[in-house]
Amino acid sequence: MSRTALPPVPAPTRGVHATARIKAARVGGGTGLPVLAGDGPFDLRRARPHGDQARVCVLGVMSAPLGGDRLRIEATADRDAHLHITTAAATIALRGPTAAHATFDVRLNVAEHASLHWAPQPLISAARSNLRQSCTVDLAPTARLLLREEIVLGRSGEGPGRLSTRLTVRRDGRSLLEQQTAYGPGAPGWDGPAIVSCHCAVGQILIVDPALDRQPPEARLFGDDPATGQAVLTPLAGPAVLITALAPDTLHLRRLLDAAHQVTGS
Question: Which InterPro entries does this chain map to (predicted)?
Answer without folding.
Answer: UreD
